[in-house]
Amino acid sequence: MSISATVLQRLETQGFVHVDPAELDQLQPWLRFTYALCAISTGTATALASPAVMYVVAVIAFLGGIFPVHPFDVLYNVLVRPFTRTKSLPRNGTPKRAACLMGGVWLAATGWLFSEGYLTTGYVLGGAFTLIAVIAAATHFCIPSTMYCAIFGRPTRTA
Description:
The protein is mainly α. It has helices spanning 5-13, 21-27, 33-48, 51-66, 71-84, 94-115, 119-139, 143-152. The protein has one domain (9-152).
């Protein structure tokens, strides 16, 4: 197994405690996919100052919090996975799902700011969210999941 202890800890902080570390080792590059799409879509919505696009991204985030499989994970599993020949991305744990719900609220608020003409504040919030998603995509360090764990405790490994 070549997954580093740091990456394993970061993935467990997101709630992937039900997945064998050897499987996480194989999937860890692809577990960045959803964060990368979040960064791209939020960055685009922010650059366009588009309430409509931001609301769509907010709905996607909310769905990622409500269901154990994020819509962008479904895109990976259906469209990309046949080419990578990996296993399907695992179900998301509670910390990552809570992070998606936090993100949904943040994105909906940012969309509202753009719709009401508060462009500077919208750009700041949209840019900050995009940066947080880029950090998660690049390093597996999910700030909202870490906040969740600080408040409610870290999940414990079950597999």
